[in-house]
Design a protein that fits this description.
There is one protein chain. This protein is α/β, with parallel strands linked by helices. Helices cover 50% and strands 16% of the residues. The protein has 7 helices and 5 strands, in the order βαβαβαββαααα. Strands 2-1-3-4-5 form a 5-stranded parallel β-sheet. Helix 5 crosses helix 6, helix 5 crosses helix 7 and helix 6 crosses helix 7. The termini are far apart.
Length: 179
């Protein structure tokens, strides 16, 4: 099940959409009230799609759309007079909307988003990650899955790529590559 952001200035609207998506098993959700929160969460957590209204306290939906990381999509829900010609990655629904149209359009947005989210790692990056996992397994007596989760957690905590975290682990004092 994908994660999506639901971002509306109106807390009640946000809650209703989140509840629908969670209850139908369509997506796990996070709620936001500002464009700044959306940008931070989408970058940090690699969330593919945001469902939002046409305005926030700090920006419009259009402004937010142009600031989204590449490969992310937006599902804009607004009255028909606020909707304009669409662009790739911008999906639009006019209000009032039906449950079926929301779920169908969200599936399209998620499908379009997922294609560019995870760039392939180079062989060097894969090797670094593998070496770091081996070292963690040996040092802390972990299995591969536990070592991978530990590496992921450290990466998420620092806000860096998995390969960069692996490199730091291997190069730090006491690590296997430290001279």
């Amino acid at each position: 099940m994908e994660r999506v952001l639901v971002a509306f200035e109106n807390e009640r609207t946000c809650g209703k959409i989140r509840q629908l998506l969670e209850q139908t098993g369509t997506a796990r959700t996070l709620g936001c009230r500002t464009a700044a929160e959306v940008k931070v969460l989408m970058a940090q957590q690699r969330i593919p799609t945001v469902i939002c209204g046409y305005k926030f306290p700090d920006a419009t939906a259009r402004e937010l759309f142009y600031d989204l990381p590449e490969g992310r999509t937006m599902l804009l829900i607004a009255p028909a007079n606020f909707l304009e010609a669409g662009e790739p990655g911008l999906f639009q629904l006019s209000t009032p909307l039906s449950r079926a149209s929301l779920l169908e359009t969200l599936e399209e947005a998620l499908s379009a988003a997922g294609k560019d989210l995870r760039p392939a790692r180079s062989e060097e990056e894969e090797a670094l990650i593998f070496q770091a996992k081996l070292w963690l397994m040996e040092r802390y007596r972990l299995d591969e899955e536990q070592a991978h989760r530990l590496l992921q957690r450290k990466s998420m905590d620092s806000g860096s790529k998995l390969s960069d975290t692996a490199r730091r682990i291997l190069e730090r004092p006491g690590g296997p590559l430290y001279p």
